[in-house]
Amino acid sequence: MPQPAGTDAELRARLQAIHERLAAAYGLPVLTRTTDPTEELVRTILSQNTNDRNRDLAFARLRNMFPTWAEVAAAPYAALAEAIRQGGLAEVKAARIKQALRAIHDRSGSYSLSFICDMETEEALRWLQSLAGVGPKTAACVLLFSCGRPIMPVDTHVLRVCKRLGILPERASAAAAHSLLQATTPPELVYPLHINLIRHGRAICRARRPLCAQCLLADLCRYAAQKGEVPER
Ligand code: SF4
After folding, report:
1. Measured CA angle at 54 (ends 212, 154), to 5 deg
2. Which among 196, 167, 202, 164 has a CA at the least distance from the CA of 182?
3. Which pLDDT score, from 0 to 100, does residue 231 have?
4. Which of 170, 205, 229 to mutate to test the pocket of ligand 1 (most atoms within 8 A of CB)?
5. CA 147, CA 40: separation in Å to the nearest integer?
6. Domain spanning 8-30+153-227 has what CATH number?
Protein backbone atom coordinates (compact mmCIF):
# COMPACT_ATOMS: atom_id res chain seq x y z
CA MET A 1 0.00 0.00 0.00
CA PRO A 2 1.12 3.60 -0.48
CA GLN A 3 3.70 4.99 1.90
CA PRO A 4 4.40 8.67 2.63
CA ALA A 5 6.46 10.34 -0.05
CA GLY A 6 9.51 10.92 2.12
CA THR A 7 10.98 13.93 3.83
CA ASP A 8 8.95 16.98 4.79
CA ALA A 9 10.59 18.89 1.94
CA GLU A 10 9.56 16.21 -0.55
CA LEU A 11 6.02 16.15 0.80
CA ARG A 12 5.80 19.93 0.56
CA ALA A 13 6.97 19.81 -3.05
CA ARG A 14 4.40 17.15 -3.89
CA LEU A 15 1.63 19.09 -2.15
CA GLN A 16 2.61 22.18 -4.15
CA ALA A 17 2.44 20.22 -7.42
CA ILE A 18 -0.92 18.68 -6.46
CA HIS A 19 -2.27 22.09 -5.49
CA GLU A 20 -1.22 23.63 -8.82
CA ARG A 21 -2.92 20.91 -10.85
CA LEU A 22 -6.11 20.98 -8.78
CA ALA A 23 -6.26 24.79 -8.92
CA ALA A 24 -5.86 24.68 -12.70
CA ALA A 25 -8.74 22.21 -12.95
CA TYR A 26 -11.14 23.42 -10.25
CA GLY A 27 -10.08 27.04 -9.71
CA LEU A 28 -8.27 28.73 -6.85
CA PRO A 29 -10.58 28.92 -3.80
CA VAL A 30 -10.10 32.00 -1.67
CA LEU A 31 -11.49 32.41 1.85
CA THR A 32 -13.35 35.70 1.43
CA ARG A 33 -15.54 35.69 4.53
CA THR A 34 -15.36 33.91 7.81
CA THR A 35 -18.23 32.19 9.58
CA ASP A 36 -19.48 32.73 13.12
CA PRO A 37 -17.45 30.35 15.35
CA THR A 38 -20.39 29.08 17.43
CA GLU A 39 -22.36 28.43 14.24
CA GLU A 40 -19.37 26.70 12.66
CA LEU A 41 -18.87 24.50 15.71
CA VAL A 42 -22.52 23.43 15.86
CA ARG A 43 -22.70 22.92 12.09
CA THR A 44 -19.57 20.75 12.16
CA ILE A 45 -20.87 18.67 15.07
CA LEU A 46 -24.02 18.13 12.99
CA SER A 47 -21.89 17.07 10.00
CA GLN A 48 -20.38 14.10 11.83
CA ASN A 49 -21.27 10.82 10.12
CA THR A 50 -23.67 12.37 7.62
CA ASN A 51 -23.62 14.21 4.31
CA ASP A 52 -23.78 17.95 3.67
CA ARG A 53 -27.44 17.91 2.68
CA ASN A 54 -28.61 16.25 5.88
CA ARG A 55 -26.32 18.46 7.95
CA ASP A 56 -27.80 21.57 6.35
CA LEU A 57 -31.36 20.37 6.84
CA ALA A 58 -30.67 19.58 10.49
CA PHE A 59 -29.00 22.93 11.06
CA ALA A 60 -31.79 24.88 9.37
CA ARG A 61 -34.45 23.10 11.44
CA LEU A 62 -32.46 23.66 14.63
CA ARG A 63 -32.24 27.41 13.98
CA ASN A 64 -35.87 27.54 12.95
CA MET A 65 -37.09 25.84 16.13
CA PHE A 66 -34.57 27.54 18.45
CA PRO A 67 -33.51 30.87 16.93
CA THR A 68 -31.01 31.79 19.66
CA TRP A 69 -28.17 29.77 21.20
CA ALA A 70 -29.66 30.43 24.63
CA GLU A 71 -32.82 28.67 23.48
CA VAL A 72 -30.77 25.75 22.13
CA ALA A 73 -28.89 25.49 25.43
CA ALA A 74 -32.13 25.56 27.43
CA ALA A 75 -34.04 23.15 25.20
CA PRO A 76 -34.91 19.69 26.55
CA TYR A 77 -32.65 17.00 25.05
CA ALA A 78 -35.59 15.26 23.39
CA ALA A 79 -36.77 18.44 21.66
CA LEU A 80 -33.26 19.24 20.50
CA ALA A 81 -32.74 15.72 19.20
CA GLU A 82 -36.02 15.91 17.35
CA ALA A 83 -34.99 19.19 15.71
CA ILE A 84 -31.76 17.71 14.35
CA ARG A 85 -33.06 14.21 13.60
CA GLN A 86 -32.29 14.56 9.87
CA GLY A 87 -28.56 14.70 10.62
CA GLY A 88 -28.44 11.28 12.30
CA LEU A 89 -27.07 10.33 15.73
CA ALA A 90 -29.55 12.90 17.01
CA GLU A 91 -29.36 12.10 20.74
CA VAL A 92 -25.55 12.02 20.73
CA LYS A 93 -25.27 15.27 18.78
CA ALA A 94 -27.91 17.00 20.91
CA ALA A 95 -25.86 16.20 24.01
CA ARG A 96 -22.63 17.40 22.37
CA ILE A 97 -24.20 20.65 21.24
CA LYS A 98 -25.63 21.40 24.69
CA GLN A 99 -22.32 20.56 26.40
CA ALA A 100 -20.40 22.74 23.94
CA LEU A 101 -22.74 25.68 24.46
CA ARG A 102 -22.48 25.28 28.23
CA ALA A 103 -18.66 25.26 28.03
CA ILE A 104 -18.68 28.35 25.81
CA HIS A 105 -20.98 30.16 28.23
CA ASP A 106 -18.86 29.13 31.22
CA ARG A 107 -15.80 30.52 29.50
CA SER A 108 -17.13 33.77 28.04
CA GLY A 109 -20.39 34.53 29.83
CA SER A 110 -22.20 34.40 26.51
CA TYR A 111 -22.71 31.98 23.65
CA SER A 112 -20.14 33.73 21.51
CA LEU A 113 -17.11 31.59 20.67
CA SER A 114 -15.29 34.57 19.17
CA PHE A 115 -12.67 34.34 21.95
CA ILE A 116 -11.29 31.26 20.18
CA CYS A 117 -9.92 33.47 17.40
CA ASP A 118 -7.92 35.46 19.97
CA MET A 119 -6.13 32.37 21.30
CA GLU A 120 -2.85 30.97 20.09
CA THR A 121 -3.53 28.21 17.59
CA GLU A 122 -2.32 25.32 19.76
CA GLU A 123 -4.27 26.62 22.77
CA ALA A 124 -7.39 27.02 20.63
CA LEU A 125 -7.05 23.49 19.27
CA ARG A 126 -6.67 22.13 22.80
CA TRP A 127 -9.67 24.07 24.10
CA LEU A 128 -11.94 23.00 21.28
CA GLN A 129 -10.86 19.36 21.55
CA SER A 130 -11.54 19.40 25.28
CA LEU A 131 -15.25 19.57 24.34
CA ALA A 132 -17.05 16.23 24.25
CA GLY A 133 -17.20 14.83 20.73
CA VAL A 134 -14.95 17.50 19.23
CA GLY A 135 -11.94 16.02 17.45
CA PRO A 136 -9.22 17.47 15.24
CA LYS A 137 -11.44 17.89 12.18
CA THR A 138 -14.14 19.89 13.96
CA ALA A 139 -11.54 22.01 15.73
CA ALA A 140 -9.75 22.65 12.43
CA CYS A 141 -13.01 23.66 10.72
CA VAL A 142 -13.66 26.32 13.37
CA LEU A 143 -10.13 27.69 13.19
CA LEU A 144 -9.97 27.67 9.39
CA PHE A 145 -13.47 28.84 8.43
CA SER A 146 -14.16 31.16 11.37
CA CYS A 147 -10.70 32.46 12.28
CA GLY A 148 -8.91 32.14 8.94
CA ARG A 149 -6.10 30.13 10.55
CA PRO A 150 -4.19 27.79 8.20
CA ILE A 151 -5.32 24.56 9.88
CA MET A 152 -6.26 21.73 7.52
CA PRO A 153 -9.51 19.88 8.33
CA VAL A 154 -9.03 16.28 7.21
CA ASP A 155 -12.46 15.00 6.24
CA THR A 156 -13.21 11.66 4.61
CA HIS A 157 -12.35 12.93 1.10
CA VAL A 158 -9.09 14.61 2.08
CA LEU A 159 -8.05 11.51 4.03
CA ARG A 160 -8.84 9.09 1.20
CA VAL A 161 -7.23 11.12 -1.59
CA CYS A 162 -4.09 11.88 0.43
CA LYS A 163 -3.68 8.22 1.36
CA ARG A 164 -4.03 7.12 -2.23
CA LEU A 165 -1.61 9.76 -3.42
CA GLY A 166 0.89 8.53 -0.83
CA ILE A 167 0.93 11.84 1.04
CA LEU A 168 -0.38 10.03 4.11
CA PRO A 169 0.42 6.51 5.31
CA GLU A 170 -2.34 4.06 4.48
CA ARG A 171 -3.02 3.35 8.15
CA ALA A 172 -2.84 6.95 9.37
CA SER A 173 -5.49 7.73 11.97
CA ALA A 174 -7.47 10.95 11.71
CA ALA A 175 -5.34 12.53 14.43
CA ALA A 176 -2.09 11.46 12.74
CA ALA A 177 -3.35 12.71 9.39
CA HIS A 178 -4.07 16.14 10.88
CA SER A 179 -0.62 16.33 12.46
CA LEU A 180 1.19 15.23 9.32
CA LEU A 181 -0.68 17.53 6.95
CA GLN A 182 -0.38 20.39 9.42
CA ALA A 183 3.37 19.93 9.56
CA THR A 184 3.89 19.72 5.80
CA THR A 185 1.25 21.87 4.07
CA PRO A 186 2.46 25.41 3.33
CA PRO A 187 0.03 27.75 5.14
CA GLU A 188 -1.08 29.53 1.98
CA LEU A 189 -2.11 26.19 0.44
CA VAL A 190 -4.22 24.93 3.35
CA TYR A 191 -7.55 26.46 2.33
CA PRO A 192 -7.34 25.89 -1.46
CA LEU A 193 -6.02 22.35 -1.01
CA HIS A 194 -8.73 21.49 1.49
CA ILE A 195 -11.46 22.69 -0.86
CA ASN A 196 -9.99 21.21 -4.03
CA LEU A 197 -9.10 17.82 -2.52
CA ILE A 198 -12.76 17.52 -1.51
CA ARG A 199 -13.88 18.50 -5.03
CA HIS A 200 -11.48 15.97 -6.52
CA GLY A 201 -12.54 13.28 -4.07
CA ARG A 202 -16.19 13.77 -5.00
CA ALA A 203 -15.69 14.01 -8.76
CA ILE A 204 -12.79 11.67 -9.59
CA CYS A 205 -11.09 9.99 -6.64
CA ARG A 206 -14.33 8.52 -5.40
CA ALA A 207 -14.40 6.04 -2.55
CA ARG A 208 -15.48 3.22 -4.86
CA ARG A 209 -13.87 2.80 -8.25
CA PRO A 210 -11.74 5.94 -8.50
CA LEU A 211 -11.54 7.25 -12.06
CA CYS A 212 -7.76 6.99 -12.34
CA ALA A 213 -7.76 6.96 -16.14
CA GLN A 214 -9.29 10.46 -16.10
CA CYS A 215 -7.28 11.78 -13.17
CA LEU A 216 -4.96 14.75 -13.56
CA LEU A 217 -2.93 13.51 -10.60
CA ALA A 218 -2.39 9.97 -11.86
CA ASP A 219 1.32 10.37 -12.59
CA LEU A 220 1.81 11.69 -9.03
CA CYS A 221 -0.22 8.92 -7.40
CA ARG A 222 1.15 5.87 -5.64
CA TYR A 223 -2.16 4.04 -5.83
CA ALA A 224 -2.38 4.51 -9.60
CA ALA A 225 1.23 3.41 -10.02
CA GLN A 226 0.63 0.27 -7.99
CA LYS A 227 -2.53 -0.51 -9.93
CA GLY A 228 -0.81 0.14 -13.26
CA GLU A 229 -3.32 2.92 -13.96
CA VAL A 230 -0.93 5.73 -14.83
CA PRO A 231 -2.02 7.10 -18.21
CA GLU A 232 0.49 8.05 -20.88
CA ARG A 233 0.97 11.81 -21.20
S1 SF4 B 1 -4.97 8.48 -9.78
FE2 SF4 B 1 -6.77 7.42 -8.99
S3 SF4 B 1 -6.33 7.00 -6.82
FE4 SF4 B 1 -4.85 8.54 -7.55
S5 SF4 B 1 -5.76 10.51 -6.99
FE6 SF4 B 1 -6.38 10.07 -9.09
S7 SF4 B 1 -8.38 8.99 -8.93
FE8 SF4 B 1 -7.40 8.97 -6.90
Report:
1. 50
2. 167
3. 59
4. 205
5. 10
6. 1.10.1670.10
CB within 8 Å of 90: residues ≥ 6 apart: 81, 82, 84
- Cα 109 to middle of ligand 1, angstroms: 48
Select from 36, 193, 195, 33 the least CA-distant residue to 117.
36
Do residues 151 and 125 lie in contact, with contact meaning Cβ atoms separated by under 8 Å? yes
Query: Is 98 near ligand 1, meaning CB less than 6 Å away?
Result: no
- Ligand 1 pocket residue status of 221, Cβ below 6 Å: yes
In the reported structure, the alpha carbon of residue 217 is separated from the centroid of ligand 1 by a whole-number distance in angstroms of 6
In the CATH scheme, what architecture does the domain 37-146 have? Orthogonal Bundle (1.10)
Q: Which residues are catalytic?
A: 137
* Atom number, ligand 1, closest to the C-alpha of residue 221: 4
Ligand 1 near 212 CB (within 6 A): yes
Domains 8-30+153-227 and 37-146 share a fold: no
Q: Where are the domains of the chain?
A: 8-30+153-227, 37-146
pLDDT, average across residues 190-219: 96
Overall pTM > 0.85: yes
- pLDDT tens digit string along 42-65? 999 999 888 889 999 999 999 999
Tell whether the model's pLDDT for residue 111 goes beyond 70. Answer: yes
Ligand 1: atom nearest CA of 210 is 7
What distance in angstroms lies between residue 230's CA and the mean position of ligand 1's atoms?
Answer: 9
On the question of pLDDT at 1 being above 50, the answer is no
When computed from its CA atoms, the radius of gyration of the chain, rounded to whole angstroms, is 19
Give the ligand 1 atom nearest the CA of 217.
Answer: 6
